[in-house]
Amino acid sequence: MAAPLELSCWAGGWGLPSVHSESLVVMAYAKFCGAPLKVNVIDNTWRGSRGDVPILTTEDNMVSQPAKILNFLRKQQQILSSPVGTHMLRKQ
């Protein structure tokens, strides 16, 4: 994918990269799949264009809601050739 991916999400705390569970879901999925994300941490949702987080932004797309973001990443072929669960089990 040529366009850079940016994920806007809540700031972290207590040793977590985010205190927002839906942001954590997207961040974990992207990490396991190797999707190149730039994470933009926000501390209030008014900075998000839709008032909700997480928001995935590319040059020509803006996607919110975790399920829609994960589907977008899948469609952009940012997932591994094997399913994430199977891939993680093989490493153990």
Automatic annotation (TrEMBL):
Gene Ontology BP terms: mitochondrion organization; protein transport
Keyword Iron attached: no
Pfam families reported for this sequence: Tom37
InterPro entries to which the protein is assigned, alphabetical: Mito_Protein_Transport_Metaxin (IPR050931), Sam37/metaxin_N (IPR019564)
Gene Ontology CC entries for this record: SAM complex
Superkingdom as given in the UniProt entry: Eukaryota
Cell compartments where the protein resides: Mitochondrion outer membrane
Transport as UniProt keyword: yes
Swiss-Prot/TrEMBL keywords: Membrane, Mitochondrion, Mitochondrion outer membrane, Protein transport, Transport
Domain (Mitochondrial outer membrane transport complex Sam37/metaxin N-terminal) ranges: 23-77
Annotated protein name in UniProt: Mitochondrial outer membrane transport complex Sam37/metaxin N-terminal domain-containing protein
